[in-house]
Every structure is written in C-alpha cells, then in structure tokens.
Amino acid sequence: MAGPSPTLEVLLQKCTSPLNVDEDPNGIQAVCHAVVTEAGGVHTAVRLLAHKIQSPQERESLQALAVLQACVNSCGPAFHSEIGKFRFLNEMIKLVSPKYLGNHTHTSVKTRVVELLFTWTLDLKTEPKILEAYNMLKKQGVVKEDPPYLGAPTAAPEPRQRPNAVFEDEEKSRMLQKLLQSKNPHDLHKANALIKSMVKEDERRMERTTRRIVE
Asked: One biological process GO term for this chain (predicted)?
C-alpha cells in the first residue's frame, strides 16, 4: 500500500534544495499541483517562497523564484491575489533595494526578481499593487530600464510536417506497399501490423519531441 503523498512543504524543500544540479520540472509540477489541491496550499506556498527567495544560497533562491513563476503560471487567481499583496511584494523588494538586502543579494537573483516583477505588471493587471511596487523601484533608481519580458513564451516551433510523416522510413514504406498489393490474406495481416508499429513509432517520436520542448 502506497504511503501518503509528500506534503507541499516537503515537495518545495526538495525542488529548491541548493544541492540540486538542475531544476526539476516534475518536482515543480508536483509543487503546483499541491498548491491548488492541499488545504491552505496557496498561503503555505507563498509564505515558504517568501522565505526561500531570500536564501543566502544563490541556487536555492533562483530555484525558489523558478517555482514562484511556475505557480503564477499554473495556480490561478488565488495565487495571484496572494503575491499581489504588499506583504509578499515587500519581500521581493527587499532583495533588490539597497535599503534592505540589495547590497548582499546575488546579481543573478536581483536580475530575476526585477524580471518577474516587470512580467507580472503585464500579466497580472488585476493586481495593481504589483505595478505600484515596480514603479516605486523605478522612481528610486533601483530599476533603470525595463528588463526582458518573461511571460507568454513564444510557442516552440512545431515539428516540421512532412507528407505521410508516419511512413517516412522508405524501407518500411516499400515493404508496406508490397504487402498491401498482395492478395494473400496473411500479407494483408502483416501489413496491418506494420502500419500499427509505424504509427506507434511516430507517436513515440512526437512524445519525445514534446517532452524536449516542455523541458
């Protein structure tokens, strides 16, 4: 019998660990799922992320910011409302403002914080405090110019469509043509099996392409 699912806190600890070599897309997806399904998930996630983004460990902070943006993309208006409050925005501001932690924050972290705040001003227009916080940083000279927009990524190019892509293997295509022209029922049965195997191979190829795009 399977044990209980890991809690949101455990999942978050795992995918923001400074020991991680790479970001864990599956772990981040599990966090997003827990945020929307666990009781009080939004509040728990925002509270923990507010702490983790201020980690002195650059890796932990950057991973927490990656999880934060994934939650913004996946966890809906309740999450947007929570990060749109000054209580959370102030924790972001502390990372870039020289009055607080700005002089001790890693440059990569400061850059990402500003990028996220700017992106949210465009993506989360229903949360006006985000724009207020961002404009305040501009007035203070903390933000000199708008950074690149991180949201709404341009769609990954679709795999090139080729006519009869399923049958692009010439050798199999020739064999299939020969079997289909045969009047022997056994050959037609073999042709049917070959078509199925070619379709499955194409599905696997598409799945691999999709997985690469997602990753």
From this structure: protein localization to cell surface
Query: Which residue numbers in the chain have pLDDT < 50?
Result: 1, 153-168, 214-215
Alpha carbon distance 164, 79 (integer Å): 45
Encode 62-80 in three state secondary structure.
Answer: HHHHHHHHHHHHHCHHHHH
Q: Closest by alpha carbon to 67, among 92, 85, 48, 91?
A: 48
Please tell me whether the overall predicted TM-score, pTM, comes out greater than 0.85 for this model.
Answer: no
Of 55, 52, 50, 15, nearest to 32 (Cα)?
A: 15
Residue type, 139: K
Per the CB < 8 A criterion, the answer to whether 8 and 34 are in contact is yes
**Cβ density class 24-43: b for 16+ within 10 Å, e for less:** beebbebbbbbbeebeebbe
Cβ(45)–Cβ(35) below 8 Å? yes
How would you class 84 by CB atoms within 10 Å of its CB: exposed for 0-12, middle for 13-18, buried for 19 or more?
Answer: buried
Give pLDDT tens digits for 156-207: 344 444 444 444 456 766 776 776 777 677 777 776 776 777 766 766 666 6
- The rounded Cα 10 to chain-centroid distance in angstroms is 19
- Residue 202 C-beta-side C-alpha neighbours within 13 Å: 16
Half-sphere exposure of 103 (CA within 13 A, CB side): 3
Distance CA 113, CA 106 (A): 11
